[in-house]
Amino acid sequence: MSATDNPAKPTPPPTASLLPVAVLLWLAGVYMRIPILVAPPLAPFISAEVGLSQTLTGALTTLPILMLAIGAMPGSLSISRIGPRNTLAFALLVMVIGSAGRGLAPDTVTLMLTSAVMGLGIAMMQPALPALLPRWLEPEHLALGSAIYMNGLLMGEFIGAGITLPVLMPLLDNSWRATLLVWSLPAILVAAALFLPKRDLAPPDRKAAWLPDWKNPLTLTLGLLLGVSGSLFFGVNAYMGTLLEQRGELENLTEALFWYNFAQVFASLVMLKMARLWVGKKIPLITMLLCSLAGTLGTLVFTGWWAIASATFMSFTAGILLIMMVALPPLLVSASETGRLSAGNFLVGYSIAFAVPMLGGLLSDWTGDIRHAIIVMLAYGIVVSPLAIKINLNRR
After folding, report:
1. What's the pLDDT at 367?
2. Which of 45, 53, 224, 376 could cross-link 360 (Cys pair, CB 3.0–4.6 Å)?
3. Global pTM?
4. In the chain, what are the domain boundaries?
């Protein structure tokens, strides 16, 4: 038998050739969260200069999160028309315009508008990254690719919240405007670098549909489960200070928020190792969902450091759950369907991550007990948890 009768299987690319792709995925993930998470530490300085109410000060963070849901559809449309790489580069530029624009905003209206533009750019990045993975990585590397950019995302949360005040602002004469510009402008280099890799393993189908396929049960199921992770993490993060104040433990807030947010970084590091073993498997998914709910329950039942430890455990397991959910679309559907499935998931998931904590907050305002806000988030997670048991994780 000749060599032509039994062709050798193509040799996978060496790790060295995948390293630039991994770096770009990580940097793109970082810029999905840094622009949002620099707002809370800068909020007092912005409010003092621009004159924001408490509601508008909170909107500096919550408005971009709402845009993460609203902007998913423009991202899906752009992917179907110009491809995921071009969409990701364009979305990065939109994010820079909005984020840097906040640093130049002369008044409240402009500040809110630029915050919305920034959120739109980040929202378009979300479906673009999963859609890009099948075009840059072989199937056996898809889960690892998801873990890499999600590690960047969760590291971006920690970096933005942790470095801004103690490190960056003192170097910039304590100017919140200069700080926003310095955080934002390097993303232009990331957008340009996206065109360096020549890999395109699955050319985009420009005739592919871009609206979410609501007849596909994965669209709603993955979105509802994604909403559990988002509502628990963002909700407990938002109400942590009020909960500790109600319990007379406000002096623990700084340490509690540090470990709470650092737990997600640790979760992303764990998933860099375990992604190929856990992503696409039902038992790890159910386990992390139940652990997230148990940690939330512990935050309610316990007090003192046991409650903080429970919240930190919830943050860790919710971070793993988030990575598992975001990594599923490239594994379950074709490359041409990945963008719109991811967009539908983010539309549903982040709408819930915004709405459920808000409903909980309204209930707690009515009852005067902040624990009721957390109970609402816990109840939502319990109601949708059977979906994790019924979900079909076979590739379509």
Report:
1. 92
2. 376
3. 0.80
4. 18-210, 213-396
pLDDT at 30: 94
Contact 212, 341 (CB under 8 A): yes
Same fold, 18-210 and 213-396: yes
SS3 4: coil
Give me the pLDDT at residue 213, please: 81
Among 377, 271, 273, residue whose Cα is nearest residue 324: 271
Torsion angle of the four alpha carbons 205, 143, 70, 260, in this order, in degrees rounded to the nearest 10: -170
- 295 dihedral zone (left: phi>0; alpha: psi -120 to 50; beta): alpha
CA distances from 277 to 19, 114, 250, 285 (A): 21, 41, 40, 11
In one-letter notation, the amino acid at residue 291 is C
The pLDDT score that the predictor gives to residue 54 is 61
Residue 211 dihedral angles phi and psi, to the nearest 5°: -70, 145
Question: CA-to-CA distance for 215 and 205, rounded, in angstroms?
Answer: 21
Compute mean pLDDT per 10 residues along the chain, 396 residues long, and list them. 43 60 94 86 84 70 80 86 91 96 93 92 91 86 89 86 83 93 95 82 59 87 95 87 89 86 90 91 96 97 95 96 92 83 89 88 89 95 96 81
Phi, psi for residue 120 in degrees, rounded to 5 = -65, -45
The position carrying tokens 């979900």 is 391
CA gap 200, 5 in Å, rounded: 28
Phi, psi at 122, each rounded to 5°: -65, -40
User: Fold for domain 18-210?
Assistant: Growth Hormone; Chain: A; (1.20.1250)
What's the CA gap between 230 and 321, in Å, rounded?
Answer: 10
Cβ atoms of residues 182 and 34 within 8 Å: no
Calpha distance 174→270 (Å, rounded): 36
Distance CA 178, CA 79 (A): 33
Q: What is the pLDDT of residue 199?
A: 62
**What number does CATH give the domain 213-396?**
1.20.1250.20
